[in-house]
Design a protein that fits this description.
alpha/beta
Length: 343
């Protein structure tokens, strides 16, 4: 049983792409494609029969789209789903519907990178928590948080840095959506492809009290503003006589990613020191752990999401085990902890 392979069911209406996905996954040690399905109706029967650990799921399919399928399937069958899509909007909707993660459909020149990324996601999804439930604040909780922080003075001195990966798009929203406009500037790296980060920032901007935008080189960090690191660009916090600002530059992957949480956190440790707070949320791997340790060593207060509320307890676990986390907490408590610390 210790050497049991991760069993995958591929759900896609394209015969060619089913072949592509099967080849990408069967070439990886420890992963086995146990079957394919041409649409959600076909998939439902095969999930019951084959009991896969993970499914890959197209969105645009006949009979029922993938997102509606997730909404109907996951309350009954807790199977880890990875959505394959070219649309950022569909990716975010799929995560909100309960998918563990998503991957961008590849172009002709991206197949090797796509296969490696998909294999990594499948391995992570096999141990992910499915169906954690809604961790967003209720109306009364959100109102209480905003009321508690009405007297929070706007400050240019403080900065909050957040890093996340698998499960992070929803987790970040839980943390930031009810923070008041007087909250110090927030800089965020969420592992996400180029093009998706702009749409994610726009999506958050519609639901948050604070303003949200994708990072651009030279952006000023200020109270009331959340800046999301752009896909394929490393984001660093810098400081000059005018205050904090963003450096957004292309570069090689660090800790396996671009943007990298480690890159952001290390720059925050250097530029903001004890005026910073760091948060590390759900995600596979270890990106951000070393950077968070540097933040803590420079005097920053650091928070790690706890195991019970993580989709994948990877990045926060490594940070915690390394001694980089000042306090570990459930996702729904993190915004309140940040606000209490600021007061």
């Amino acid at each position: 049983m210790l050497n049991r392979k991760t069993r995958v069911l591929i759900v896609d209406d394209s015969a060619m792409f089913r072949t592509v996905l099967t080849a990408a996954l069967n070439s990886a040690p420890g992963i086995e494609v146990i079957g394919t399905a041409v649409d959600p109706i076909d998939a439902k029967g095969k999930i019951l029969e084959m009991k896969p650990d993970v499914i890959t799921l197209d969105v645009e399919m006949p009979k029922m789209n993938g997102i509606e399928f997730l909404r109907r399937l996951l309350p009954i069958h807790k199977v880890a789903a990875i959505v394959v899509t070219a649309s950022a909007v569909e990716a975010f909707e799929a995560v909100q519907a309960g998918a563990v993660d998503y991957i961008k459909k590849p172009t002709a020149g991206e197949m090797d990178t796509f296969a490696s990324k998909l294999q990594s996601l499948v391995r992570g999804a096999a141990s992910a928590r499915v169906g954690l439930g809604n961790l967003h604040a209720t109306g009364s909780q959100a109102q209480s948080l905003r009321h508690t922080m009405l007297n929070l003075a706007s400050t240019a001195n403080k900065v909050i840095a957040i890093g996340a990966s698998t499960g992070g798009t929803d987790a970040i929203q839980v943390v930031v959506e009810n923070l008041p406009k007087t909250t110090p500037g927030i800089v965020i790296v969420q592992h996400m492809p180029a093009g998706f980060t702009k749409m994610y920032a726009d999506r958050l901007n519609r639901v948050c009290q604070m303003e949200v935008k994708e990072a651009e080189d030279g952006d000023k960090v200020r109270s009331g503003l959340i800046i999301i690191g752009a896909g394929e660009y490393h984001m660093r916090l810098k400081r000059n006589a005018g205050g904090y600002f963003i450096e957004s530059k292309k570069g090689e992957k660090v800790s396996g990613h671009c943007p990298s949480v480690d890159v952001l956190f290390e720059s925050v440790a250097e530029s903001a020191r004890n005026n910073a707070m760091g948060v590390i949320l759900t995600g596979m791997g270890a990106d951000g752990a070393k950077g968070m340790l540097k933040m803590k060593q420079s005097g920053a207060f650091t928070v790690g999401q706890d195991e019970s509320t993580c989709v994948v307890y990877g990045m926060p676990m490594v940070a915690h085990n390394m001694g980089a986390v000042s306090r570990q907490a459930p996702l729904q408590d993190i915004a309140g902890i940040l606000m209490q610390r600021l007061r």
